[in-house]
């Protein structure tokens, strides 16, 4: 089981997830019962990581570069060059202050791009 979760989870989380699901790390994946699989799924879905503090600003990660905002319609986040292609988050060349602003930009642009892409998809299926 421990080896089977290697591609799904960070190595350091595997023991905590297996323990949380009350499973044995050496258990064969093909021997896991339906009830045990359900426990594993519920453990993964409900897994929480308690926050204990913040790291110094000097350790902040910045991503720069990406698709130029001149190539993106700011109302829909659609590409100005490729029809029915939408951009969101850090794939765009937009930099923000650390502390959640870049996350807010990713969430907001994802919502707008996803909404417009879904509308396009509805039109295509008609």
- The CA-CA distance between the termini, in Å, is 46 Å
For the secondary structure, the number of strands is 0
Globular, elongated, flat, extended or rod-shaped: what is the shape?
extended
Mean pLDDT: 88
User: What structural class should be given to the helix and strand makeup?
Assistant: mainly alpha
Percent of sequence in beta strands: under 5%
User: What about the largest sheet?
Assistant: none
Helix content range: 25-40%
Radius of gyration from the alpha-carbon trace, in angstroms: 21 Å
Q: Show unreliable segments.
A: none
Q: What is the H-and-E element order?
A: HHH
* Number of distinct helices: 3
Report on this model:
This protein is an all-alpha fold and 126 residues long. 36% of the residues lie in helices and 0% in strands. The chain is built from 3 helices and no strands. It is extended and about 55 Å long. The mean pLDDT is 88.
Short description:
With 126 residues, this protein is mainly alpha-helical. The protein is built from three helices and no strands.
Key attributes of the depicted protein:
mainly alpha, 126 residues
Topology:
Elements: H1 14-20, H2 34-46, H3 101-125
């Amino acid at each position: 089981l421990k080896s089977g979760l290697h591609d799904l989870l960070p190595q350091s989380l595997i023991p905590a997830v297996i323990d949380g699901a009350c499973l044995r790390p050496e258990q064969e994946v093909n021997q896991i019962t339906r009830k045990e699989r359900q426990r594993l799924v519920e453990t993964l879905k409900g897994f929480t990581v308690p926050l204990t503090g913040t790291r110094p600003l000097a350790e902040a990660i910045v991503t720069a570069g990406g698709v130029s905002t001149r190539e993106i319609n700011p109302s829909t986040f659609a590409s100005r060059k490729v029809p029915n292609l939408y951009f969101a988050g850090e794939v765009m060349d937009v930099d923000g202050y650390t502390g959640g602003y870049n996350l807010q930009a990713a969430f907001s642009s994802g919502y707008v791009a996803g909404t417009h892409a879904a509308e396009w998809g509805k039109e295509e299926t008609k």
